[in-house]
Design brief:
By secondary structure, the chain is of the alpha+beta class. Helix 22 packs antiparallel against helix 23.
């Protein structure tokens, strides 16, 4: 798990960061979850069991007016490090790729950064809780290198939201260091943060971060997501640039003599051609998520002639709905997907019952791990995105961070010590510190295979987990060399798409919507499913939009506009 990363692929943990949580809730074990987090998998995400299918963390700011300008003054200056050179460099923020594991490691923190402090830290786990100190030799080894002691309070990730709310309700119970995934941020969290947690901008805003070079190596966008109530409170777990793709079965495409589509019409035509019920083969899964990306649907709000349009009001959203409804009407979508059975979509795609599917980027290596042992010719690939007419697509950047940690208010010397510890934990791929944080001690917690990939020992499986890594993490890389060709394909694909990535109007802003708007958009989720399946029409969308406006949609629009003033 060298250089493990959250696929916070949509924001929650994404495959998108939100898909990650869904998978974790479904019973992902610790090692498989760590696999989800490894390499260049996301959110977006998210986690993918942390980042697979969610809309991402709720916005968290409560004051309006030039929010972007305010946030820009709070975050650290970005000073990228390249202690080891990737084989496939980043392009406009895409994930760099390493086609081999470095044979020698760099030391990024020359001496133990701590000064003997002892701190409690609360983190989630979607797997078996590891032994605590003093029984955990992994904790002992890392703490020794840190020159300080971190005592972890590891809690069930599936019940973590309740735990967070309970702890925050009693400030005396708040630990020194607290991890809160974006999807677990409670209502009015910004107010709680300002009252309980340390504003880190006092210590690392702008060039102040130069004291901590590994923290300065974290991209600016990830830091922005940790800003609440006019302060910088969250230490981020950075995510990837793009959270989702439309995948196709490249092995079966080659066998059938077809090529991936390059326009929306070609997709429908090809899906129809591939569908053969007698062979239990359908051209497509439900690709509603991919259809929205293909049609350039904005994450939430779009500026049109100086005014905001909600995504469900936009021409792009209508076009995506109409196209997807036609795809379903063609009979090209697997009948189980038509029936709403999304849980078995991966199994259908991996078995060849459906040949095109939309999923989070983290699904790629997960599928390879499941299928390659029994089907070594299995090959799934992501399509290059295209606009509906086959032209240049508009891709909106994924959430830049899905998990955050917060330092409780304390005296400046302790804050500086914890930031020094965080600098150690944020050491990038290819460093001794990164290997220690993610794998433990070689020969004790892991060994290496012929490719140099760390393999957990029995002790490592029991003791090593994402505790230190959840407190703060380095920018993600793709180093999943255990899957032949994956690093090249994934990093090169993301680099090609990166040229079309843009930021939406509220990218990098944490905005807390008033509680009265909490359920305003929910009817559109079910309505979209009904329209796509032909049970309702676009006239029903018009009627729902009128209801949405009268029940607060226009008021919500004005609320968001205030952050752009």
């Amino acid at each position: 798990m060298l250089g493990s990363q959250v696929d916070p692929s949509r924001g929650r943990p994404h495959k998108s960061a939100s898909r990650l949580l869904n998978e974790a809730s479904a019973g992902v074990n610790r090692r498989s979850f760590l696999g989800i987090l490894s390499g260049a998998v996301f959110l977006a995400a998210a986690p993918a069991a942390l980042t697979a299918c969610s809309s991402g963390p709720a916005p968290q700011a409560t004051t309006s007016g030039s929010l972007a300008e305010t946030v820009a003054k709070l975050v650290p200056a970005y000073k990228p490090l390249e202690l080891v050179t990737p084989d496939i460099p980043s392009v406009k923020g895409s994930t760099p790729g390493f086609t081999s594991i470095p044979s020698s490691l760099v030391k990024s923190v020359p001496t133990p950064p701590g000064s003997g402090g002892t701190y409690t830290a609360m983190t989630p786990a979607w797997w078996a809780v590891p032994p605590a100190l003093p029984q955990n030799s992994y904790y002992q080894a890392v703490n020794e290198k840190l020159g300080a002691t971190i005592n972890f309070q590891v809690n069930d990730g599936n019940a973590y939201a309740d735990k967070v709310q309970t702890v925050l309700a009693s400030p005396k119970d708040v630990p020194d260091w607290m991890v809160i995934p974006g999807w677990n941020l409670p209502p009015r969290f910004g107010q709680a943060a300002a009252g309980v947690f340390q504003d880190l901008s006092e210590f690392i805003a702008g060039d102040k971060v130069n004291k901590y070079p590994n923290l300065a190596n974290i991209p600016t966008a990830a830091w922005k997501m940790g800003c609440f109530e006019g302060g910088l409170y969250g230490l981020p777990y950075p995510g990837a640039l793009i959270s989702d793709a439309i995948f196709y079965r490249a092995d079966l495409f080659e066998e059938l003599g077809v090529k991936p589509p390059t326009s929306a019409d070609e997709y429908r035509t090809l899906a129809k051609e591939l569908t053969d019920e007698s062979k239990n083969r359908w051209g497509s899964e439900d690709v509603w998520t991919g259809a929205q990306i293909m049609h350039g649907v904005v994450p939430k709000w779009k500026q049109v002639d100086g005014k905001l349009q909600n995504k469900v009001e936009t021409d792009e959203y209508r076009a995506a709905l109409e196209w997807t409804a036609k795809l379903f009407a063609d009979g090209s979508v697997h009948p189980d997907a038509v029936a709403g059975n999304a849980q078995q979509s991966k199994q259908r795609f991996e078995s060849g019952a459906s040949l095109m599917a939309s999923d989070g980027m983290g699904s790629w290596h997960e599928a390879l791990a499941r299928v390659l042992p029994s089907n070594p010719t299995f090959n799934m690939q992501p399509m290059d995105y295209f606009a509906p007419d086959g032209g240049k697509p508009t891709l909106f950047r994924a959430q830049p961070a899905a998990i955050f940690s917060f330092i409780k208010k304390t005296d400046p010397a302790k804050v500086e010590e914890m930031l020094a510890l965080a600098n150690f934990m944020a050491a990038p791929f290819g460093t001794e510190e990164n290997v220690l944080i993610n794998n433990g001690v070689e020969g004790v917690h892991f060994t290496r295979d012929a490719q140099g990939i760390p393999k957990a020992t029995a002790k490592g499986t029991e003791e090593v987990t994402s505790t230190y890594a959840f407190l703060v993490n380095a920018p993600i890389v793709n180093s999943m060399v255990q899957y032949p060709g994956l690093v090249q394909s994934q990093s090169q694909w993301e680099a090609r798409q990166a040229r079309n990535v843009v930021e939406d109007a509220f990218f990098g802003m944490q905005i807390q919507e008033p509680a009265k708007f909490g359920s305003l958009s929910k009817p559109f989720d079910d309505l979209a499913k009904d329209i796509i399946r032909g049970r309702k029409s676009m006239k029903d969308l018009d009627a729902e939009l009128a209801t949405w406006k009268s029940k607060g949609g226009d008021e919500l629009r004005d609320f968001y506009a205030g952050f752009l003033a």
